[in-house]
C-alpha cells in the first residue's frame, strides 16, 4: 500500500496529479484504494482541526496584542503631549536666539553722527544695497526708517516658515530672506501705501509678539523678538504711512485750528463769554467746530483694522461703505484727505484678504471649496471686484476638479460622470454668485471649454489608447455623452465641443478595430457541418443566450443537441450583434456614423464571402442556407438593433441588405463522386 501521511503532502515538489496516478498504479484492487482514500480523508480532517486550533490561538493572541496596543497608545498620547510642550519651548528659545544673532545692517556699520540726516540716509541706503543679494530696485530717492530680523509664521497653524529681514522706507517695504551664511537674499517689496499692520493678540507658546502685515499678496504674519520690538515695528509702520501722506502736495492749505481745539468737541460757553467775543472770533470758532469730522469717522480706520484681524468681514465692509457714503456727502472737514486715504488703503487690504481667503480653499474638495467661497465671493461682488473674484474662483475649481479626477482614476471610479457633475456644480454656483454680473459669464464659458479640453486629453491618454477594445471604447463614449447632455438642463451645451475633441481619436480607433476584426474572420477552419452542442443543457444555454440578443434559433434545432447552422455562423451572430451595439453607441455622434456603419458592413461581408475549400467536399446547399440566414435574418436584426440604439437609420446597411436580396447566392449541386 502506498504511503499516506502528511509528510507526503508537505513536500515542496508535491504534485497532486502525479500522486493520484501513482496511487492508482500501486493499489491492488478497489478495497485497497478505498482504504487509502479513507486515510487521506482522515488526514484532511486532522489538518482541518489543527488549522482551526491555530486560528483560535492566533485570534486570542490578536486580542491580547490589541489590549497591549491600547495601553501603548495611551502612553504614546501622553508622551506626544510632553514632546509638543518641549517642542514649543525649544522653538521659542530657537527663535529668540536666531533673532538675537541676526543683527541689523545699519548697526553693524558705524555711521558718523556728526553728518546731517540726508548724508546718513544715503550711507544707510548704500549699505543696504550692498548687503542685499538680487535686489535691482531703486532706493536712492527713499528715506530709510527702520530695519530688523523677524520670523515669518504660517497664518494657519503659526508654524515658523523662515527667517526674514525687513527694511522699511517711507515708500517701500523690502523683504529679504536670511540664508544659512547669514546672507540676505531679496524676496519681494511692497509699497507702504498699499499695506496695513494689525496687532495680534498674544497666545502663550503659539504666536507671541506677532503682527499681521496685509499686503497686495495677502496676509503675512511675522514674529518679533519681544513685545518692545513688536511695538516699535507697529509705530514705525504708522510713521511710514504718515510720512508718505505728508509728502503729497496739497492743492489748498486750509486754515489750521488751534491745537487746543483740534478734534475736540466744543465746550459750552456762557452768555457773557460769548458777548466778549468779537463777531469775527465767534464766526471763526463756529467754522472750526463745524469742520471737525464725526468721532466715529476718526476712529473708523482702527475699528476696520480690528474687524479685519478678527475676520468680521461683513461688519468691516459695512463700516467701509458707511465711511464712503459720508465722504460722498461731505469731504470738506479737517483731515479728510488723511482719513480718506486710510479708508481707501484699508478697503484694498480687505479685498486682498478676501481674495487670499478665496485662494486658500483650493486644497479642499470641490464641494468644500464652493461652500467656503460663498462668503468672500459675496463681499467681493459688493466691493465691485467681480472680475478678480471670478478668476480666483475658477482657478480654485480647476485645482479641485483635477485633484478629484486623479483620485477617481486611481480608484477606478466613473470619471466622466464625476467631471460633468462637478462642472454643473461649478456653473450653478458661479451663476448664483454672479447673477447680477453678466460680464462674468464669458469667463465661465472660457473656463468650461478649457476644462473640457483637459478632460478630453486625459480621457484619451488613460482610456482611449491604441488597441483598446471596441466595446470598451463604446462604454467610455456613452459614459461621456449622457452626463454631458444633462448640462443642457442648466443652459450649458458642451456636447458639440466634446464630440469635436474626441472625433479624431475615435475615428482612428474605429479604423483600427475594422482592420483587426476583419482580419480575424476565417482564421479558424470551418468544417461546414451543423453545430452539435453535445448535451441538451448546452443547447438550452445557447438558445437562452441568443434570446437576449434578439435571435431565435429554435426553428433551426434538429434532434436533441443540433442547430442546423455551422458553429462559425452561430458564433458570428453573437460577434456581429455585439459589434453592432458598440458601433451604434459611437454612431450617436453624427460625425462617426458612417465610420461605424462601414465597420459593420465590412465585417459582415468578410464572413458572408467565406467559401469552403474544394478539398472539403461540403454540401453547397448547406453553405447557401448559412449565407441566406445571414442576409435574411441576421442582417435585419443587426440593422434594427443599430437604429434602436443610435436613433438613426443605417443607410449603408440598408443598401447592403438590398444588394444581397437582389443577388441571392446560387447553390451548386452536390457531387458524390470523389476525386482521386
From TrEMBL:
Lineage top rank: taxon: Eukaryota
A Pfam family reported for this protein in Swiss-Prot or TrEMBL: VPS51_Exo84_N
BP GO annotations: exocytosis; Golgi to plasma membrane transport; protein transport
Mitochondrion is among the record's keywords: no
Residue ranges constituting the Exocyst component Exo84 C-terminal domain according to the UniProt record: 295-494
The keyword Protein transport belongs to this UniProt entry's keyword annotation: yes
Gene3D superfamilies, alphabetized: Exo84p, C-terminal helical domain, Exo84p, N-terminal helical domain, Pleckstrin-homology domain (PH domain)/Phosphotyrosine-binding domain (PTB)
Swiss-Prot/TrEMBL keywords: Exocytosis, Protein transport, Transport
GO cellular component: exocyst
Region (Disordered): 248-272
Listed InterPro entries: Cullin_repeat-like_dom_sf, Exo84, Exo84_C, Exo84_C_1, Exo84_C_2, PH-like_dom_sf
Family designation: Belongs to the EXO84 family.
Protein's name according to its UniProt entry: Exocyst component Exo84 C-terminal domain-containing protein
Organism the protein comes from: Anopheles christyi
Lineage, opening ranks: Eukaryota, Metazoa, Ecdysozoa, Arthropoda, Hexapoda
Amino acid at each position: 500500500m502506498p504511503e499516506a501521511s502528511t509528510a507526503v503532502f508537505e513536500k515542496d515538489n508535491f504534485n497532486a496529479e502525479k500522486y493520484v496516478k501513482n496511487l492508482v498504479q500501486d493499489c491492488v484492487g478497489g478495497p485497497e484504494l478505498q482504504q487509502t482514500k479513507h486515510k487521506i480523508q482522515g488526514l484532511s480532517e486532522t489538518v482541518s482541526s489543527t488549522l482551526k486550533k491555530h486560528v483560535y490561538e492566533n485570534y486570542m493572541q490578536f486580542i491580547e496584542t490589541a489590549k497591549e496596543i491600547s495601553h501603548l497608545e495611551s502612553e504614546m498620547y501622553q508622551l506626544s503631549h510632553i514632546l509638543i510642550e518641549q517642542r514649543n519651548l525649544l522653538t521659542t528659545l530657537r527663535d529668540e536666539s536666531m533673532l538675537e544673532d541676526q543683527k541689523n545692517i545699519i548697526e553693524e556699520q558705524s555711521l558718523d553722527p556728526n553728518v546731517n540726516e540726508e548724508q546718513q540716509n544715503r550711507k544707510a541706503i548704500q549699505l543696504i544695497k550692498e548687503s542685499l543679494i538680487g535686489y535691482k530696485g531703486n532706493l536712492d530717492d527713499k528715506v530709510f526708517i527702520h530695519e530688523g530680523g523677524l520670523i515669518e509664521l504660517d497664518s494657519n497653524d503659526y508654524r515658523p516658515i523662515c527667517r526674514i529681514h525687513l527694511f522699511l522706507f517711507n515708500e517701500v517695504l523690502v523683504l529679504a530672506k536670511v540664508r544659512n551664511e547669514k546672507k540676505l537674499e531679496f524676496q519681494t517689496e511692497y509699497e507702504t501705501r498699499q499695506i496695513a499692520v494689525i496687532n495680534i493678540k498674544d497666545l502663550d507658546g503659539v504666536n507671541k509678539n506677532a503682527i499681521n502685515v496685509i499686503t497686495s499678496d495677502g496676509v503675512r504674519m511675522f514674529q518679533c523678538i519681544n513685545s518692545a520690538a513688536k511695538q516699535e515695528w507697529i509705530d514705525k509702520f504708522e510713521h511710514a504711512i504718515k510720512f508718505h501722506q505728508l509728502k503729497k502736495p496739497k492743492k489748498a492749505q486750509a486754515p489750521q485750528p488751534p491745537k487746543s481745539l483740534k478734534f475736540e468737541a466744543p465746550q459750552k460757553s456762557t452768555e457773557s463769554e460769548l458777548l466778549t467775543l468779537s463777531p469775527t472770533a465767534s464766526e471763526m470758532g463756529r467754522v472750526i467746530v463745524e469742520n471737525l469730522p464725526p468721532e466715529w469717522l476718526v476712529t473708523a480706520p482702527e475699528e476696520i483694522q480690528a474687524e479685519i484681524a478678527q475676520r468680521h468681514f461683513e461688519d468691516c465692509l459695512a463700516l467701509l461703505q458707511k465711511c464712503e457714503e459720508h465722504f460722498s456727502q461731505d469731504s470738506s472737514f479737517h483731515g479728510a484727505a488723511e482719513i480718506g486715504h486710510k479708508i481707501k488703503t484699508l478697503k484694498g487690504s480687505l479685498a486682498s484678504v478676501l481674495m487670499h481667503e478665496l485662494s486658500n480653499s483650493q486644497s479642499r474638495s470641490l464641494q468644500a471649496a464652493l461652500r467656503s467661497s460663498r462668503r468672500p465671493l459675496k463681499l467681493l461682488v459688493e466691493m465691485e471686484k467681480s472680475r478678480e473674484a471670478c478668476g480666483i474662483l475658477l482657478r480654485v475649481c480647476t485645482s479641485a476638479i483635477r485633484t478629484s479626477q486623479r483620485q477617481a482614476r486611481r480608484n477606478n471610479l466613473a470619471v466622466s460622470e464625476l467631471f460633468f457633475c462637478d462642472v454643473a456644480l461649478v456653473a450653478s454656483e458661479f451663476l448664483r454668485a454672479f447673477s447680477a454680473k453678466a460680464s462674468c459669464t464669458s469667463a465661465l464659458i472660457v473656463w468650461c471649454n478649457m476644462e473640457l479640453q483637459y478632460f478630453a486629453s486625459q480621457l484619451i491618454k488613460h482610456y482611449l489608447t491604441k488597441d483598446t477594445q471596441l466595446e470598451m471604447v463604446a462604454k467610455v463614449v456613452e459614459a461621456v455623452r449622457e452626463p454631458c447632455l444633462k448640462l443642457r438642463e442648466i443652459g450649458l451645451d458642451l456636447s458639440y465641443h466634446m464630440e469635436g475633441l474626441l472625433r479624431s481619436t475615435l475615428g482612428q480607433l474605429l479604423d483600427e478595430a475594422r482592420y483587426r476584426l476583419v482580419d480575424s474572420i476565417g482564421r479558424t477552419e470551418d468544417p461546414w457541418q451543423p453545430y452539435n452542442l453535445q448535451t441538451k443543457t448546452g443547447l438550452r444555454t445557447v438558445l437562452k443566450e441568443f434570446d437576449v440578443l434578439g435571435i431565435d434559433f429554435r426553428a433551426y434545432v434538429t434532434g436533441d443537441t443540433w442547430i442546423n447552422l455551422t458553429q462559425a455562423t452561430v458564433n458570428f451572430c453573437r460577434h456581429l450583434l455585439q459589434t453592432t451595439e458598440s458601433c451604434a453607441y459611437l454612431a450617436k455622434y453624427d460625425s462617426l456614423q458612417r465610420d461605424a456603419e462601414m465597420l459593420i458592413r465590412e465585417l459582415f461581408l468578410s464572413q458572408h464571402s467565406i467559401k469552403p475549400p474544394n478539398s472539403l467536399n461540403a454540401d453547397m446547399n448547406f453553405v447557401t442556407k448559412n449565407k441566406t440566414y445571414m442576409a435574411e435574418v441576421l442582417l435585419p436584426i443587426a440593422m434594427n438593433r443599430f437604429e434602436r440604439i443610435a436613433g438613426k437609420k443605417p443607410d449603408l446597411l440598408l443598401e447592403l441588405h438590398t444588394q444581397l436580396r437582389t443577388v441571392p447566392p446560387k447553390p451548386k449541386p452536390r457531387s458524390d463522386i470523389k476525386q482521386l
